[in-house]
Amino acid sequence: MSKRKKLLLSSIMCSLILGVSAAPVSAETIETFNLDEMVVESSRNHKTPLPGGFNNDSSRVGLLGETPVIKAPFTVQSITEDTVSKMAMPNQDLDTVLSNVPAIRTGTSPIKTDFSIRGLATNASAYLVNNIPGFFIMATGPITNTVGSIDAMIGPAATLNGSTPSFQANYLSGATPGAIYLNTKRAGEDDFIKYTQTFGGHGDYGEYLDISQRFGKDRNIGVRIYGQYDDGGLAISGAGQRKKNLFANVSYEGETTKTNVFGGYYDQKFMGTERRFVLDKSATKFPDAPDASKSFDDPKVMHQDTNGYMLTLNHQKKLSEHVNWFVNAGMNQSVVRRFIYKGELTIDENGNVMGKGTNPWSDHIYIQNQYLQTGLKGDFMTGMAKHNVAVSVDRSHRKYYKSFKTTTNLFTEGNIYTGLIFKPGIYGADESTSLRKRFNQEETVVSLNFMDKIEIGKFTLVGALSRRHGDYLPGYGPKTGKEGPNYKKELKDSNWAPTYGLSYAPTDKLSFYAAQSTARNRGSFVDDDGDTLNANQYLDSQRLKNTEFGIKAKPNENLSMSLAYFDMTQPNTLKTYSTTDPTKYWLSNNGKNRFKGVDFSVDAKLADKWNTFGGFEWLNAKQEVTTEKKFEGLPTDGSVKWSGVWGLEYKPDEDTSFTSRLSYTGTGKFVHVETARVLDIPSHVTLDLFASHKAKINGVPVKFIAACYNVTNDSHWIAQVGQSNRFVINNPRSFMLSAEFEF
């Protein structure tokens, strides 16, 4: 038996012996207004959890609003607030709970937000906060202690919210492969004041305040205020973080009106957390992973500082028995100042740093976003068919500024196993605080959206159509830092994005469905690199085609399952070389990657006191049309054939639970961008353990939560999906403990 299989088997046995897995669900989440498809939600009633209690039996599905999972003709998963609080402790990232979704693979540097959905790369730009997109980018992510429940929309369902600004994904790849809805914490029925202390095993201390109160004659005004102060070390040697924030959520629930306002300010800093690497073309095998607890930049000088604010508004008004008007609006501002490597550490197969791409880089990013969506929702009958219709218009606007300065001749040297060597000049090279705003890009997207969910007996048909109108202004060249020929040259686009879904439910415990969407994004100008024959010309937007077939079943109150087959076609940049001058080429978007696979998920109550959740994904990801024919038929960058997650919970009583989670990632495929050499990134298994217990100390209710991530302290590489040549080292074992006092 191989070492990897032994580790997998021993981890499974360990979790069975310990009797631990996912957390029970206290299902405080959200209800809809009157129609079950309403956009604005409250938290005064509870969703019903699926068997086992880790996920809810209903989920947000774009403009369709709250929809039963078994009836949604798409892959959707709603993670409960209790699961979020237990697995994504407030000083951790949401990656620690998103990995519960079989279609999602996580893992990147702490200063990045990259993850993948069904083999397609995305990042925190795929998150929506209270239905508002565009708050985050690769370098800025969500504030964990503000998040209640999470609704993950996968595949064709990702196009159902309205406009798709190009910053949600690489603008040449169509739309994002999924949408992650973050529902902020809101006041429930019970008033409370909670004070929480957290401790990380490497000197990280946190303090949190959470106040929930209701006011008014009918207690129809809810106020929830929460804040964080966290400071200390990470499990990575020498690395640290400091997080400060203060947020408030105010909700009003009247007979015909519901309103929710969320907003606040945050300030956070990471020191010494870069973990990304590139493999030199000389390598004929993949190097062994180094000790994951090591730092691979200098925590004394290398950092990323982020601060900003965010504000959201959700409002709905009942105009008649069957018609509602709604508004979703939001704005935010983010400022990022950082001093990091310009690129990743380039290493050979022996772990030697090649002195490429490791010059220190001072960087300043400034982002402003505004979003407004308004429309009508209603229901009516035509014969035997019940229609739930939504018509909306939305406008998304972003200004993005970026300035940077590279200090040359300060390449990091050394070896990832024996130690890195930093040149002394690096300690005086940080100029991030003195950089000023420089215009990089501006984009405005206006979208008209039409949606109709038709229910006829046992059939449910969903049809949606979005008309996108984009206006894009490019700034200075991202590589040269200078104004190019297309500086502020207006680029316009108009395109349609259709979505279809059909579900047949012979009983209320079984459904069969099919869905398809075609999403488009903005086009682009062709950069002039001296060899491009169609330089400065316009390329039309590309299309991401997404098809899915599936089965969902809930045979009894103790078991819920879903199985989906998907097929996605992703466009790619293609160079067509001249027959008269082989150094010249035309650039087009006719390249193609293909992603086909199967997702399976299960939620179950195994027996009294025992619950489980999990699933797997099988993925066949290939490059089908490429610039160089030698890449055709090869795997896509960082793709993994098999991956899965399995959780088991033992709950001896209502106040205590023990939780384990095994995450498996199969052999990753590394395709070298220069040689087309395919190397295997070894598979790995990660075991995480969680425990919670409620008690009283001198009459004060206290909730204890303990977590241990990467229990075996395994060191392994993580393939970076969709990013040529890039891979990262995982995070080492880390311990977390929290005590929540309720007054």
Architecture overview:
This protein is mainly beta and 743 residues long. Helices cover 4% and strands 55% of the residues. The N and C termini lie far apart (54 Å). Mean pLDDT is 88; it is low at 1-43.
Please give a quick description of this structure.
Helices cover 4% and strands 55% of the residues. With 743 residues, the chain is mostly beta strands.
Keywords:
single chain; 743 residues; mainly beta; 22-stranded antiparallel β-barrel
Largest sheet features: 22 strands, antiparallel, barrel
| Low-pLDDT residue intervals, each spanning 5 or more residues | 1-43
SSE-based structural type: mainly beta
Radius of gyration: 25 Å
SSE layout and pairings?
Layout: H1 3-18, E1 55-56, E2 58-60, E3 66-68, E4 75-79, H2 81-87, H3 95-98, E5 104-106, E6 115-117, E7 120-122, E8 127-129, E9 132-133, E10 147-154, E11 178-184, E12 192-200, E13 204-215, E14 221-233, E15 240-253, E16 257-271, E17 276-279, E18 303-318, E19 323-341, E20 345-347, E21 360-382, E22 385-406, E23 413-415, E24 419-421, E25 439-456, E26 459-474, E27 491-507, E28 510-520, E29 524-525, E30 538-539, E31 543-556, E32 559-577, E33 585-607, E34 610-625, E35 642-653, E36 656-665, E37 668-671, E38 678-681, E39 684-697, E40 700-709, E41 717-719, E42 726-729, E43 734-742
Parallel strand pairs: 8-11, 17-20
Antiparallel strand pairs: 1-4, 2-3, 4-10, 5-6, 6-7, 8-9, 10-11, 12-13, 12-43, 13-14, 14-15, 15-16, 16-18, 17-42, 18-19, 19-21, 21-22, 22-25, 23-24, 25-26, 26-27, 27-28, 28-31, 29-30, 31-32, 32-33, 33-34, 34-35, 35-36, 36-39, 37-38, 39-40, 40-43, 41-42
